[in-house]
């Protein structure tokens, strides 16, 4: 009888160890899944932003109308919303009256705000090292702060901006409002930075309108080319 009790005791101990191990593995698996989902959302957001810039350029050429892309806030420091009124992180307008402002009926397309709270502007790993993405705007300061943390665009006076306009020639330009004025060729160069907390991404808009996406390689402390 005593021998059987000892065996039963050992069995319960082993079971307890297994339960603890399962708990640890489940917790680790949950963290890995959370990070994977966050990274997937970041990739999706980055692709959407890159697509928005490419679409803005093509629509400006096709329609002969200025197309403006805003990030984070518009020129009046107002929050961005889609045509349906949903919160957005990026907004494209067909600027029919060429004033650089969001007017009724001008909204074309938006990148909606992530509702999980897992994405944010800026860089978790590259930012503290002040490592700008390849071909970023060399005139801008990186990383920016506050409302300008999203990006490295400038206005014609070289002040930090959160917007860029594509003219009918397809080239991106810096711009300012009141009155609406644009910079010269090459002035629309800039980047948009997004992080999932575990990985940093950058969407780079070249001076002539090309769009490239880069990911920061934390171990090597470099952006992908």
Itemize the secondary structure elements and their pairings.
Layout: H1 2-63, E1 67-71, E2 88-94, E3 107-112, E4 120-121, E5 153-154, E6 160-161, E7 163-166, E8 172-173, E9 175-176, E10 181-182, E11 190-195, E12 200-205, E13 211-217, E14 222-223
Descriptive report:
The chain is α+β, with helices and mostly antiparallel strands. It has one domain. It is 28% helix and 24% strand. It has one helix at residues 2-63; strands at residues 67-71, 88-94, 107-112, 120-121, 153-154, 160-161, 163-166, 172-173, 175-176, 181-182, 190-195, 200-205, 211-217, 222-223. The strands form four sheets. It has a five-stranded antiparallel sheet with strand order 3-2-1-7-8, covered by helices on one side. A five-stranded antiparallel sheet has the order 4-11-12-13-14, covered by helices on one side. The chain is elongated, with a radius of gyration of 24 Å. The protein starts with a helix and ends with a strand. The model is unreliable at 30-34 (pLDDT under 50).
CA-based gyration radius? 24 Å
Taken together, the total number of domains comes to: 1
Question: Going across the major beta sheet, what is the strand order?
Answer: 3-2-1-7-8
Helices and strands: which structural class?
alpha+beta
What value does the average pLDDT take?
A: 88
Determine the strand fraction and express it as a percent band.
Answer: 15-25%
How would you describe the shape? elongated
Order of helices and strands: HEEEEEEEEEEEEEE
Spans where pLDDT lies below 50 across 5 or more residues: 30-34
> How helix-rich are the residues, as a percent range?
25-40%
N-C termini distance? 71 Å
The number of helical elements comes to: 1
The strand count comes to: 14
How would a crystallographer describe the biggest sheet? 5 strands, antiparallel
């Amino acid at each position: 009888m005593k021998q059987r009790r000892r065996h039963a005791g050992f069995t319960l101990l082993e079971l307890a160890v297994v339960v603890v191990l399962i708990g640890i593995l489940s917790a680790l698996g949950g963290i890995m899944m959370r990070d994977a989902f966050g990274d997937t959302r970041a990739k999706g957001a980055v692709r959407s932003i890159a697509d928005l810039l490419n679409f803005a350029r093509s629509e400006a050429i096709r329609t002969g109308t200025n197309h403006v892309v805003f990030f984070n806030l518009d020129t009046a420091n107002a929050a961005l919303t889609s045509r349906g009124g949903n919160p957005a992180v990026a907004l494209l307008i067909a600027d029919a009256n060429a004033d650089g402002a969001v007017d009724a009926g001008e909204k074309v397309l938006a990148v909606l705000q992530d509702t999980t709270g897992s994405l944010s502007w800026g860089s978790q790993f590259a930012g503290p090292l002040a490592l700008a993405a390849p071909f970023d705007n060399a005139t801008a300061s990186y990383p920016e702060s506050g409302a300008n943390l999203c990006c490295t665009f400038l206005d014609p006076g070289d002040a930090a901006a959160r917007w860029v306009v594509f003219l009918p020639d397809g080239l991106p330009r810096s711009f300012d409002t009141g009155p609406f004025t644009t910079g010269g060729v090459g002035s629309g160069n800039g980047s948009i930075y997004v992080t999932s907390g575990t990985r940093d991404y950058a969407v780079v808009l070249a001076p002539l309108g090309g769009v490239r996406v880069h990911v920061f390689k934390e171990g090597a402390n470099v952006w992908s080319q």
